[in-house]
Amino acid sequence: MPKPLVTGISPKEGYPGTKVIIRGEFLGKDEEDLVAVIICGVDCTIRAKWEKESRITTYTGFCKGKGDIVIVTNSGGRGTSSVGFQGLVKKNIGPYEETCTWVDEDSKALLTGLKRAAVNELSHDNPLNISLDDSSKYGMDFFDKEFPNSSIDMTQENFNASRFLLENYQNAKFEDLRQGLEYMKRNIGSKTINSTDNLLKNNISSFMDAIKIMKDIHWLSSNDKKNEFTRSIELMFKDILKTAHRIYDQDLASKDRADMIRNSLQILDTYKSLIYFPQNVDKWLKLDDYEQIITSYKLAKMQLSKAEPATRKSTLFAQIKKDLDSSVLEVQKHILKKLIQFPSSPDEQKFLIENYISIENIIAIEGNKRNEVAFNPAWYCLTEEKKWFIQLMLECRDMHIADEKVSLAMKQSDDSNNNNSKQEQKNSSDVLKDGKNLSNNILNNTEASKIQVMTQIPHERNKFIEELCQMFFDIFTDYWRLGSMYLGNLFNNLPSTNNDSIKANEYHGLVGEILETFCNIVRAAFIPHTFDKSLANTNLLSEWPIQHDAQIISQILPHCLKVCRLCAQQIFSLDIQPKQFECVKILIYDLRCECLVTLLSQPTREILATLGFEEPDWIVDRDVDSENNSCLITNLPSRFEAKFNRALSLCKEYVLDDKKGEKSLFKDPVFSKKIAMLLYGISHAFMKRINRFMSKEDSLPKFVQMSRSKLLLYLYNNLTVCKRKALPNIWQTIANHKYQQFDQVIKESKKNLKELQDMLLKQYVSEATKPIVDNIESNLYAGRYDFSECSAPLTVRNYVKQIIMSLLNIHSELFLLNKSLIQAVLTQAVKEIYTKLFSLFVNIPNFCVSAAIQAYIDIFCLKETFKLYTSDESKEILHKILKLIPSNSFEQNKSLMTKLIGDFEKGMQPYLAVFHTQPPTSSVNISLQSNENK
Amino acid sequence: MTSSQNGKKQAPIYKVIMVGSGGVGKSALTLQYMYDEFVEDYEPTKADSYRKKVLLDGEEVQIDILDTAGQEDYAAIRDNYFRSGEGFLLVFSITEQESFDVLDEFREQILRVKNAEDVPLILIGNKSDLQNSRQVRQEVATDKANKWLKPYIETSAKTRDNVDKAFFDLMREIRNRKLSENNKPTGNRRDKKKKKKCTIL
């Protein structure tokens, strides 16, 4: 027979133990011929079943990868295959998978197969090979009755053929039966010999052994007459039995042990999560995976509680439980540690707190009743955060204090050359401490050079307040959120408690403490004099370097106020209880007051220090009032107004408007009064400034080139304009801004103004007329003029002309600067001139005729010239003068006098016209101009 | 080298894949062709492999048949099988309309896996011995085959009717395809090969 050739495999791949059908050619003549089946190098012969020459079935062994199928037969030898088998391997083989490859017990390799092989031939279901008949007419009872103690099993002793036939082939035809018999005969004939042979052949050694044993028995029995050998055999058997029992017991024991181990393995597997929990917890903690921890812990707890009582009592379980609990406590500790790691967002905190509580809850499930006054992580977090928060604020403050000290030190080293300034600073710092009479004291420092140009760099404290408020607001908002969660019991899993009101009080205490600290810090930094040092504990005490420069303070404070107010507004919108908010409210109020004071002091200082010392202050402008009276002014009033307004608008912007939840200003009459005083101080400062210029206390800056009289006029005009325009505007603004109690201020200011103006005018008049009056005497006697002895008059004397020219100067000055003053000033001047003349004429002992005529003409001309400016008083004086002149010779010289007066009027006409024009009219303006040009 | 020295040439292998829904008779056709036996019992196939030498038009060739599973459970692993195939017998049962209808899907899968417009393929209507319970008319099947430009053969695994024809026709198709593929893009390469051989000799 040729070599076996495998041409087909079904299936072509599979796991170990797969049943495969191998097809091909020459796969063996019969069962005996088949020697080996090797699939992928694994011998599968044991389970192989030869079916026919082209077909064998078997089960694959443990093979991996693709390999050939080799059939070995006696007749053909080692075969080949044109197809291959692919062995697959299950990956998930582990200690809990049962992967035994069972060997079929009915395999012929086992001894028991011996009998079965023989019997199989007979116990064919259908030995006659004719169709079996199911529809038996008779039941089993019938057969049992008819054929007692008989069987239809051919292998049994009590086999009864009749019953067998009746039961199985009741309806078969006789012919069929005969054919069946033939078939059976053929079958038996072909197989019995074969099978016996096979039996012997296959088990030859067993038979040999059996024969040997029988021989031994025969020999023993023949030798041992007393049948003793059976005894020994019996003993031996007993021994064997014992041993067998022992072995069996051992087997049982080892099986038990195996079971036990498997059992424990299983338990370990079941409680794997329990045992590994502590290790896993560390891992999860690193990842912040609390959810995982909680779930695992819950699971573990459940497993623990579900575990059988017996197991629960075991020490291992106790240990596990201990580990579990301790590790969970560790987790809780860890969470708490994390919880007080600030800064963190409320969501984060909530997350942590909830996790903590979840764990707590699971612990509580176990039966340990939850303690009512149990530790509350949220509360813990709140208190810890409060501590941290306050610390943070203090740190912020300290940092900025240090910064400011450094910058201050640098500045001082710059200033060190100037010892004076230091002294001044000391003075002003003392002033600041008093917090009162600021403006008055600053007056000492009015040297304009002292005022340094302010730096635009934000001051250290501005930076500080911004940072503080930003930080405060950020953290506080978060804190508040956490707090409301705490109060509202918004944490999942937290059992609600009924002491909510206590909780709320406690919490509000915390909030209050924070706010208090904040307020104190701000207070200490910005308004130290309001800071109650005795109350605050030591670490809150301010170490801020004292700020000397009031100007800088006026810069810092509004900014601070603005930032703080914004912050307070935001905090207020959080619905904080009024009680806790009170300190913030007071702080804001104090800041506002302070700020208002500072802002309103600022212009006073500025006006006193700088107004009138800058070139723009002296730019000349023309002002025309409603009655079309025009006068020349400088920029002083408008600059004053600007400064005043700036301060007011700053106040308005930063301080005045009450915002939601703020204590309104001006409710306190004392404070209102104070503010009113400050307002008054500003206008007062302006007047003081003017006054100082007037009284020559302050010399004019070099760039201002003007005569004293002009200066006085300008100042006068400025005041006029100020009264008319600047002050009303300012009062209006003040009223609009709802300042209180300022009526008195207006009245007082007006009064001051009036007084100052009067003074100015008096000054001007005396200033203007003094040189004229002083000159009259020398002019009267000019050229050694002798009243007792002189030639006939030729014309009006020069002193008259000089008086006229001088007054003309005054007139033109007034006309240019303020026409409305012409009348008043000139009238006054004329009066003084007349008075002087009178005193001079009185002292003339003797008039000659010519002198009398001359004097009369002179006086007459003066009288004519100034007739418009002659008050009743002046007229009287004039009359007295004329009386002093002897008039007896006038009659004869009348023509001469008339001529001389006519000449005078002719010659002086343009000048006289000035005085003869009713002042003030615009037409005069032109004539005056032309006259001056001449 | 060894084979040429021995004077024996390895017979060319034609890889045929049986495709069709479960129970249409793929395994029956295969076994009938391979071993002249008809298996009445139905046992679902996973993936069976057969290979034998046959004479195709006087030339000794090897036919390698991969009998695949029709059941949907194995749909996922079909791609792998299809990839290795050179020719396909798309089998349906003429007594089951549904088995005929799903062939379009099978064909599309084959074309997709082979990434080709056209592959050697024959449409097989099996169980032609059961004319009484026929559900798919011959014309309908022929129409589909014409649409695919493929032959249609009705077979009976039981009576071995047209079984050999089906396999041999498919092998011829594969052979033709192989020849045309070799000719087309490798005209140059073949020359080169020849030259190389010459130098070696």
UniProtKB/TrEMBL annotation, chain A:
Keywords for the protein's UniProt record, in alphabetical order: Exocytosis, Protein transport, Transport
tRNA processing keyword on record: no
Region (Disordered): 411-434
GO cellular component, one term: exocyst
Annotated signal sequence range: none
Pfam families found in the cross-reference section: Sec5 (PF15469), TIG (PF01833)
This protein's record includes keyword Protein transport: yes
Function according to Swiss-Prot or TrEMBL: Component of the exocyst complex involved in the docking of exocytic vesicles with fusion sites on the plasma membrane.
Name under which the protein is recorded: Exocyst complex component 2
Species the sequence originates in: Brachionus calyciflorus
UniProtKB/TrEMBL annotation, chain B:
Keyword Amino-acid biosynthesis: no
CDD domains listed in its UniProt record: RalA_RalB
Annotated compartments: Cell membrane
GO cellular component: plasma membrane
PROSITE patterns the UniProt entry points to: RAB, RAS, RHO
Bias (Basic residues): 190-201
GO MF term set: G protein activity; GTP binding
Keywords carried by this UniProt record: Cell membrane, GTP-binding, Hydrolase, Lipoprotein, Membrane, Methylation, Nucleotide-binding, Prenylation
Database matches in NCBIfam families: small_GTP
Protein name, as recorded: small monomeric GTPase
